Amino acid sequence: MEDNVIIRNASLGDIETICGLNGSGADQFRMAYWQDIFDHYVLSGRADRLCLVAEKGSQMVGVIVGEIRAWEFGSLPCGWVFVLSVAPGVRELGIGQRLFTEMCNRLKEIGATTVRTMVDLDNKLALSFFRSVGMTTGRYVELEKQLD
Q1: What is the model's pTM?
Q2: What residues are paired with 55 via a beta bridge?
Q3: Facing residues of 49 across strands?
């Protein structure tokens, strides 16, 4: 696990770097998506909304976004992770695990007792990662219907 990684709250100046984390660049669609994320999670100033970044040296290498939500589908308040991304060149160094652990610690500090996320069944890398940090199948089942 990388020792020289710092996890901190995201700031508005991080938006372009985060957009390019996966090498896809900061195109207009991604910038609009991240601007919405930043408005909701960074600029709102709410303690139950978190956007954290990982820095290795002076380079941003990861991001995680989460919050505490309640009452959807009858659920008691719990933490949710919506985004977790680590730059391709530094994967498998424990940075994702450090981000996830810090998110869980912060969510627990503000009252969460459970953390949830959703993963595409075909995304074996993400499934493997989340299982490696202790996540298991939860009590809710996602259902979907294709709209013609």
Answers
A1: 0.88
A2: 6, 60
A3: 67
Nearest Cα to 47, choosing from 29, 32, 67, 30?
67
Element (H, E) at 69: strand 59-69
3-state SS, residue 139:
coil
Closest by Cα among 114, 112, 107, 116 to 142: 116
Please state the three-class secondary structure of 83-121 as a single string.
EEEECHHHCCCCHHHHHHHHHHHHHHHCCCCCEECCCCC
Q: Quick one: tokens of 75?
A: 């659920």
Q: Which of 120, 124, 112 is nearest to 80 (CA)?
A: 112
From CA 136, how far away is CA 7, in angstroms rounded?
25
| Residue-wise pLDDT tens digits, 5-40 | 999 999 988 888 888 776 555 567 777 888 888 898
Contact 30, 83 (CB under 8 A): no
Question: What is the set of domains in the chain, with CATH numbers?
Answer: 10-132 (3.40.630.30)
